[in-house]
Design goal:
The protein is an alpha+beta fold. The protein contains three helices and four strands. It has a four-stranded antiparallel sheet with strand order 2-3-1-4.
Length: about 100
């Protein structure tokens, strides 16, 4: 009986989809020197699988990114901006 229950529970958890959560992180973005730079940063972040929303501010040199944490993470977001020529880092306390 216990073995059957254990196998049933194992099958249930393996068949269940991973519970993903929507997260938002604010990135401080370097090297944005002109008004077209935010567009490039936005495009780079939007191309990351799992990203659902991006707002880039030239004035504050930040990007606020909403993403599915089952498909993306801050490291992938930072890699995307860095590969586009705009290194970034999370603003302290910005993850939610």
């Amino acid at each position: 009986m216990h073995r059957t229950l254990a196998l049933g529970l194992t099958a249930f958890f393996l068949a269940s989809p991973t519970i993903a959560a929507e997260r938002t992180v604010t990135l401080a973005v370097d090297n944005m020197t002109c008004v077209t730079c935010p567009y490039i940063v936005e495009q780079a972040l939007s191309a990351v699988p799992g990203v659902t929303d991006v707002e880039v501010s030239f004035e504050s040199a930040t990007a606020v990114v909403t993403f599915d944490d089952a498909a993306a993470d801050p490291a992938a977001l930072m890699a995307a901006t860095t590969n586009a020529g705009f290194p970034s880092r999370p603003v302290s306390g910005s993850e939610g």
